[in-house]
Each structure stands twice: as C-alpha cells, then as structure tokens.
Amino acid sequence: MTRIPAIASLFVVCIIGAVPEDTIRADQQELVDRFNRHRRQARRRPNGFVPSRVINYHFADDISDSSKELFMKAASAWEKDTCIKFKFDSEAVDNILVRDDVRKSCLFKRSRTGKGNQTMYVGCRFFGGVAHELGHALWLDHTHKRHDRDDYLNVNWDNVKQQFDFVSRNFTEIRLERYREQYKKLTKLQNENYDVPYDYGSIMHYGSTGQYPPMTPKDKRYHRTMGSALISFTDLVVVNKHYNCDDICNSDTSARCARNGFPNPNNCSTCVCPGGYGGQLCEEKVRAKGWR
C-alpha cells in the first residue's frame, strides 16, 4: 500500500493504483449506471444564485516557490474541465490569501460572510490535500456529509472520538465539536447535489482506514477506495452545474457526449468523460488508472 502523507489523519486518501484494475472498472461502470438513473430527475438550483467563476488569489510574502507551484498545479486541475479561472490579484475585494504553514497542514478558512478575504493553507504539501481545499473554496462541502449519505455510509461516532484523540495530539487547536462537524450530515436545505449520484471516490470524501474507522461504506466493495487524491468526474459535474458552466456549450455545434459525459466548457467540441472512458465523445474505453 502506498505510504499515506501526514495529512491523512484529517483527509485520508486511498491511492487507486493499489486497487485491482478489474475492481476499478466495475466501480466506474456502476457510477455511469447510477448517472443514468439520477439524471432523469429534476435539477434544483439554490435560490438561483450563481457565484463568480473567477477566483482571485495572492500569495503570502514568505510562501515557498514549491508551495506556489503546488497551488497552481491544483488550481489548473480544477480549471482544466470547468469554467472556473483562478486569477492572481492581490487588490481584489474577494481574495484567497495562500499561506504555507506546516502547523496548519492544508486548510481553507472562509470569512463569516463568505465574502471578502479568505485564507488557505497548503502546509500538507501534497496535491490531493491542496485540491481538496480548493474544492472548499469552490463551495463544495464534504461528500460524506450529503443529506442522503445514510443510504451509503455508517458513521461510528465513538471512532470519530478516537480519531480526534489521535489527531489532536499534533493539532492542539482542534476542538471535538468542530471535529465532529466534519462528519455531521447536512440537511436538504443546506445541501444541493444537482442530482449527481453518490461518489465514494470524490476528492471531497474522507477515507476509511485503520482499526477503528469513523466511516464504513454500506457497500463493502468501497471499503478501501473511499476518498481520493484526485478530482473525480462527479466533482467536476457538481462544480460545472454550480457555476452554470454548461451554459457555455449549449449550441448545436457542441459535442454530443456519450456515457453521460459533458462538453468541456474550455473546448465545446470535446467531452469530459467519466472514469474508464475517453475519446473526443467518450465513446472509447480506456485503460483504468483510477478516478480522474
């Protein structure tokens, strides 16, 4: 099993390369099948609000070049298949200050109003942790907090407490109630899923490892594959819908994507495809290397 970075105590990732390829293919096909069922349902938008597609940021004076590079790599990964653009602008009113502090590990701190200056720490120094926190910057909450998560997960609150006791040895500023919030289910009023099926492999999903895991999947096949260090197809779908990116590719010349793929808002003639499929229109099966 690939060695898990120190941040794993807060965001546990499972390296898909350690999972048998036939298991990955089966998981990907099942996700496509679930999309077929869910996309027949009506889509809802929260109060018609669409946030800005431009995310302003600037770097702290003492941040290292390697941390800058890591942030830009994670930002580019989100930009690649969405209409989101990260813009360096230290003068913008809404701005993310990117800091490098190993004591904070990887963390995104939003202001009380959700507007104005935010702070993001990239101290964990690995791609999955930084991309996860950028997901929060894009208004994504944890997948395992979805209002329908009880259909897919069991949460063991005693184990959450045990994990907190372990984590708090190194992060003394963390409090139990705040830690429990990371596993608290959201309500339907708080949580808009855009009828996207539940994805154990989302980058916004915590993993489940150790002798006393806080969460266990009801489908035991996913016990070793919950969470990911990579942005998943469903993560991209949710962001594109939340920011109305699909409005960009609504002409007759836009790609007609198979397998529930969608036109890439950066190039409407090509498709963003679910894991296991590729080609310009998602018509080709590709060798599985894990979730996107």
Give the SSE map:
Layout: H1 21-38, E1 54-59, H2 65-80, E2 85-88, E3 95-99, E4 106-109, E5 117-122, H3 127-137, E6 153-155, H4 157-167, H5 176-181, E7 215-217, H6 233-242, E8 262-264, E9 267-272, E10 277-278, E11 284-285
Parallel strand pairs: 1-2, 1-3, 3-5
Antiparallel strand pairs: 4-5, 6-7, 8-9, 10-11
Helix pairs in contact: 2-3
Q: N- to C-terminal separation?
A: 20 Å
Mean pLDDT across the residues is 82
Please count the beta strands (DSSP E, at least 2 residues each): 11
Structural class: alpha/beta
**Which strands sit side by side, in order, in the main sheet?**
2-1-3-5-4
- If you compute it from the alpha carbons, what radius of gyration comes out, rounded to the nearest whole angstrom? 19 Å
Q: Based on Cα principal axes, name the global outline.
A: globular
CATH H-level superfamily of the domain at 54-129 = Collagenase (Catalytic Domain)
* CATH domain class of the domain at 54-129: Alpha Beta
What is the chains' assembly state? single chain
Uncertain regions: pLDDT < 50 for 5+ in a row? Answer: 1-46
Helix content: 10-25%
Signal peptide: 1-20
Active site: 133
Organism: Ancylostoma caninum (Dog hookworm)
Binding site for Zn(2+): 132, 136, 142
